[in-house]
Amino acid sequence: MNLKPGWLLLLTISAGVWSVPIERNGGNQEPKEEVPEESMDTGLYYDRYLREVIEVLETDPHFREKLQTANTEDIKNGRLSKELDLVSHHVRTRLDELKRQEVSRLRMLLKAKLDSTNTQSLQMDHASLLKQFEHLDPHNQNTFEAKDLELLISTATKDLENYDAERHEEFKRYEMLKEHERREYLKGLDQEKREKEEKRMQELKDKHRQHPKVNAPGSVAQLREVWEETDGLDPQEFNPKTFFKLHDTNEDGVLDEQELEALFTKELEKVYDPKNEEDDMMEMEEERLRMREHVMKNVDTNKDRLVSLEEFLKSTEKKEFNNPKEWETLDTKPMYTEEELQRFEAELRDKEEELKRRAETLRQEQELLKERGKALEAQRREYQQAVLEMSQRQKEQPAADGQPPAGPNGELQFQAQTQKPEDTEAKAPAEHEPEVQQNNLPAEPPQNLPIHT
User: Fold this and answer.
1) What is the Cα–Cα distance from 45 to 160, expressed in whole angstroms?
2) For residues 74 and 50, what is the distance between their CA atoms, to the nearest angstrom?
3) Which residue windows does the record flag with biased composition (Basic and acidic residues) (predicted)?
């Protein structure tokens, strides 16, 4: 993605590349194949949405033409956003789809946040919750309108302006945490070991400070060094205009923040080496940020976070370009005061106490769950015993009632019954007894007997 300076004014990251140092060792070197540009992550939580919207808008010829002719004020006051009504239908359809995807993603983030805080909300008002996200219109969650583009531009601009300040604050907290951990570590040692360790740490600090002189970023000495060692050109033939074009790696006519930061690599290598124990790479990135801010402050006269060729050439005419002040690296002055460190340590203690309270609460809940588990296990065993006894009684009951005994699987077993001899004799009829007629009916009179009248 190759954007024009007007768009880059508000969305610096939309330049779309990490600029890397150019390796040149003279004119005899064979040209290298172009390396595909690698997108840079802004660190914004809506970075992907921002990039996709820009890419889709650039596919429309009308909008791209308006973007090329737009100035700073057109972008800032929202006039460019109104051109969204004239883009093609398939572009609007794609933008609508992107917005719905973004709204869906934000809803998932909100749900995860609510779940993590154990907040029960059966009827969530998503429109109200989405108001906390400023880069889109929460009242219209289905279509991408001019207001969405205006909000996206203004929010990204504001967030990027605050991004450097947040990075500085994050680095300060990192340094205070290092010092806190160092002091806690020394407290745990006996006096002899503590003195020995303090001596070792001081030696590492002194070794780190013994580095070559660092040229002021943006000065003629610093640029000549890049011209000679990185570009492989004769330092006596240094030309600012040629230098600018050499390091405008995406050829958009301006040096963006990443292209500027790439110029400081040689100076940073004088101070930081990842192989050395005494060199901290986090400090190196903070130093790079400070250098870039220094150049922007002195060169970027219109404060659009970009350096044009005109601005660059004018900076070479200033007195500071040829006679700059000595550059002070991070190791020359403290990043924080003792009072700030004490407040930071108090904050750490409060967080530690809070974590302990939570851990204790979780331990108590775990014990309670264990007790409940034991009670449930006892109930389960009692239930199994009751079922076993009931099953045993069911097996014994048929035998008591004269029913055939049951088999091992509950089936009935039938056995032939043998009668005792005395029972047979008792039940056998007498030889001379007349047979008793069934149903007590009278017997028929004997035949050939005289009939009485």
Assistant:
1) 12
2) 19
3) 189-206, 420-435
